Amino acid sequence: ASDGVLGVALDAPPAGWHLANPEAHKDIASEILNGKSLSLEVEAGSPEWLTDSAIVFGEGEFTIHVSPHVCPEEISPPDKTLLFHPPVLALGVGCERGCDGDELHALAMKTLTLGGYSRQSVACVCSLDVKSDEAAVLQLAQKLGVAARFFSKSQLEDETERLANPSNVVFSEVGCHGVSEGAALAAVGPQGKLAIEKQKSKRATCAIGLSPTDLDPQTIGRGRGRLFIVGTGPGKQSWRTPEAVKILSEVTDVVGYGLYLDLISDLIEGKNRHTSDLAQEEARVRRSLELAAEGRDVALVSSGDPGIYAMAALAYELLDREDRADWNRLAVQVVPGISAFQAAAAKIGAPMGHDFCLISLSDLLTPWDVIERRLKAAAIGGFAVAFYNPVSKRRTHQLETARDLLLEQRRADTPVVLARNLGREGESVRIVELANLVATDADMLTLVLVGGEDTRAVTRGENTFVYTPRGYGGKMDAKRKNEQKENKA
From residue 156, how far is each of 128, 180, 183, 222, 225 by CA, in Å? Predict the structure, then answer.
């Protein structure tokens, strides 16, 4: 009732705001609905969500008090006051590399207590950008439920004149005269102030900046860059994992081959799109890393699974090869997807039900003699094999060469599954015998599954399926024989 009449839900304030005493809400809201007057007292913050509502403020018997302090002396009597904590505090922190997270957390709580400030008014935890991967800083932000934001040394150095404790030692080490105080001041801006100067523990420092208005963490410094290498499956909407859908909805930027981004256009509407041609894999990965290094949340999109002949390996290779400090501070996460070989297998039965291997027939990056060696090993081992990149306009002999190598060890009637455009318009799945496999059966949109030494193609009724037994039949036969022997005995 109060929400409708007052035009605002006092017990559900906007993001960043917190009602300190929700237990008092029901009684006070009832009194207001009964015509009791209400006053508004604001120490800091932007209470427009209150003043723009239907509430008429004046000299009242009841009070809404907006304050970053835990329990301001002005609140009296407390049973007639709703206390709101606005997001106006910035915790500036610094610490040694590898600082214990509990130490930094304890120092932050001590610093808040010194000023009588509520942790519910903390809008963000801030520090120097070289600390963007520091576990203690990230853990502190997580425990407080706020964003971690970071500044360059030049941005912190711009705050030198406002520092209470500038340090030449700190300058010689990191290039600015103060980390915790500088970060707190940079976060609250020129209209803010240093509310609590630098406090120290053995390996950490903390200071508090106070803003007169609400702080929006997304406009403060920049976050720790995050790169998500996302697999979207073969293309079918229902084959996307919930994790991939969630991450794609949350990132700021998406990078990928144009076709792959078009297939998820419903998920990335309004995102910053960065596209490139199919063969420009390294350029896409570099672009993703550069964007993430700017503090953005970036999704590098692959079809299928990004760890199988896709972008994840190249991303980690570049991180390894270049060893760049800004890239090394990024949070990198691989988000798996359904691979083409899994989708193809599911469409036809269970051809990968026993040991199998995956081989790319593209010799653009891998010498053909290496591919041949692996093909021979797969043939000798009796594995079911999935061929990625089986043919292209320029490469036409590889698939038939692979066929001939497998035929040296495998039955001529070994089933081969040809799955094309899986999960997309024009999808087709068909079966041929290994001896009859030719290059024109496939293209770059085709996944080729070659059965192993035990793989079977079976027709039962109207259904044809391919599967590779794991040996359960033999196990059950042996069990039946043992039971028969025991019954005779």
Answer: 8, 9, 6, 13, 19
Instruction: Return the number of other C-beta atoms located less than 10 Å from residue 384's C-beta.
Output: 27
Q: In what order do the strands lie in the sheet with 415-420?
A: 356-360, 384-388, 446-450, 415-420, 428-433
CA distances from 63 to 46, 59, 71, 432 (A): 17, 9, 14, 80
Using CA atoms, how far residue 111 sits from 114, 119, 139, 162, 201, in Å, is: 5, 10, 17, 19, 11
Give the pair of three-digit tokens for residue 436.
Answer: 């009859």
Helix axis angle, 398-407 to 368-381, nearest 10°: 30
Q: Residue 261 in 3-state DSSP? A: helix
* Helix, strand and coil percent figures for the chain, each rounded to 5: 35, 25, 35
Q: CA 335 to CA 302: how far, in whole Å?
A: 10
**3-class secondary structure, 240:** coil
Q: What is the CA radius of gyration of the chain?
A: 32
Q: What is the tens place of the pLDDT at every residue in 191-242? A: 999 999 999 999 999 999 999 999 999 999 999 999 999 999 987 889 999 9
C-alpha distance from residue 304 to each of 159, 230, 389 (Å): 48, 9, 13
| Residue 476 confidence (pLDDT) | 58
Query: CA-to-CA distance for 110 and 94, rounded, in angstroms?
Result: 15
Rounded CA-CA distance 455/414 in Å is 7
For the segment 105-161, what is each residue's pLDDT rounded down to a tens digit?
999 999 999 999 999 999 999 999 999 999 999 999 999 999 999 999 999 999 999
Q: How far is CA 82 from CA 201, 210, 250, in A?
A: 35, 22, 34
Residues linked to residue 193 through DSSP beta bridges, in sequence order: 210
> What is the rounded CA–CA span in Å between residue 304 and residue 282?
18
C-alpha 259/C-alpha 333 separation (Å) is 23
Q: Which contacts (CB < 8 Å, 24+ apart) does range 28-34 have?
A: 28/62, 28/80, 28/81, 28/82, 29/2, 30/2, 31/61, 31/62, 32/2, 32/6, 32/62, 33/1, 33/2, 33/5
Whether 195 contacts 210, CB under 8 Å: yes
Give me the sign of the Cα torsion angle 238, 243, 244, 249: positive
pLDDT reading at 74 higher than 60: no
Helix or strand or coil: residue 324? coil
Amino acid found at 229: I
The single-letter DSSP state of residue 69 is: B
The label of the residue with tokens 């053909």 reads 368
Question: pTM of the prediction?
Answer: 0.85
